[in-house]
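Step 1: inspect the first sequence and its tokens.
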Amino acid sequence: MATNEPTTTLDPEFSAPGAEPTPWSAALELLENAEVFWLSTVRPDGRPHVTPLLAIWREGRAYFTTGATERKARNLAANPAVVLTTGRNALAEGLDIAVEGAAARVTDPAVLRRLADSYAAKYGPDWAFRVGDGVLTHDEGGEALLFEVTPVRAFGFAKGAYAQTRWDLD
């Protein structure tokens, strides 16, 4: 499960000589504090779809919202495979993370409440959700579906002293 310490591997082919693997704790810090993520899904015809969004990392999983008719929701109905990325838009410093997994819809009222509280705490009052019938609701945007990403693998791309780290989370 993703809350355990993952198996960590440094890929020497894509790392600088003498590079060390990035600790999972550094990846967690970035995942917990990042404000913007990029979600990659697969369209029913096989073409990729990428979009920026807000996400919460909590207890070893990622959570994001979308409208029921948005492209990402329609893609996930056909194929739950996703990659969620975040990091720094700089070449020589920082850390980029790509998390691979499967997204599943969350409808449990207790989980919806916890995540509604997490969104408001992290992103402020503009992202204050209420819990509806299996959805989150918002005065400005109607209903939002909540998805949970269970990660199976993540990659870290440390910059400066380049290091490509792989974390196997299953």
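Step 2: inspect the second sequence and its tokens, then contrast the two.
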Amino acid sequence: MIAQPQTLRRTPWTSQADEAEISHWSTIAQSVAETLAANALERDRANATPRAEAELLRSSGLLNLLVPAEFGGGGGHFESAFHTVRILATADGSISQLLAYHYFNQAGIGFYAAPANQATWWRRTVEGGWLWGDSVNPVDPTLVLTEDGEGYRLNGLKRFSTGSGVGEVIIVNAVIDGGANHGKVLAFVLDTGREGLELLGDWDHLGQRLTASGSVKYTDVAVHPQDILGEVTDEPIASLLTPGVQLGFGNFYLGVAQGALAKGRELLLARKNAWFLSDAESYAHDVIFQRTIGELKARTAAVEALAEKLNRRFDTEVARSHELTAQQRGEYAIAIAELKVVATETGIEVANRIYEVTGASSTANSVGLDLFWRNVRTHTLHDPVDYKKIEVGAHFLHGELQPLSLYT
């Protein structure tokens, strides 16, 4: 009997994280978060390129959490990565975002590259200590990729390129213009020192200041065959990357809410006396303030429960590899959209209403409580949450799944 050839797995992640793994990476993340928290406000106000922060992520080992152990990586799972993102967000939303984007940019190796080519990419990212930025903003489609011999030439401008200002490499998505492959979308990786690649450093926003998310200009940048990860297709397992990014957002918003709650608790417990109309011995013993903070804590706990469930499920869906169906992928994307809705609204509400229990003195610039609100308010505008509500409603009412995009 002749053995039938087996299809190579698209992705290298085949199992679930155990408690020991999650505990290991959570401990590291907590240590990094404590370091970041020590001067988060000062660094945010300085608004400098986060090179020291990037080195902290690198030296901690967090950059290679998802890289298979056989290639020198941490051998971790996505559930551990989502935990890490959330923990960092309690201290520094910017660096949490930087790491979250890095994880899915780097994971493009497993989602886009042919299985036979992945080993080389995994080794290169570990040996180079790469932090991966991106240049894929789908609402800014100004890149032109044209054939040039065996490779291509890239021209155009991409805004909101997170991590580009500090990463060793940038993953780029661009449509081929002309030639036999006209219309195909390629994912490829460029080192930030490539000739013709210009980092504009123009990121200067209300929040998320240290994400190195400036624009990148490309002028006749050479894209060699060895730079190409693969074609961006609608294959369910390859397109699962996008819901994964949205799940990262949900964990990030949750972490910001938890950080704001922790800071608010600290400030509330430190408040002396009580409101003059109250019979309580302190603000922290006043039922008015207990009710408010209890409401915010309960809502945050509910978001956490949903996030925990979906974080673990991501590894289950990834493990299906090429057997993942479009229906399975679509239904999971809807579940993640549900998290996106409640995480967005809870993150903003907590970061805003925490002032109700911390009082007027907490608005002092030296306190820095505004950092949580500015960060979550800025990033939750990434894509309109109302469209996520529509996705959830359309599926609940009619069983509709959304067409594939870099937002769904």
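Step 3: confirm your contrast with the notes below.
Residues 1-6 have pLDDT under 50 and may be disordered. The longest strand covers residues 151-158.
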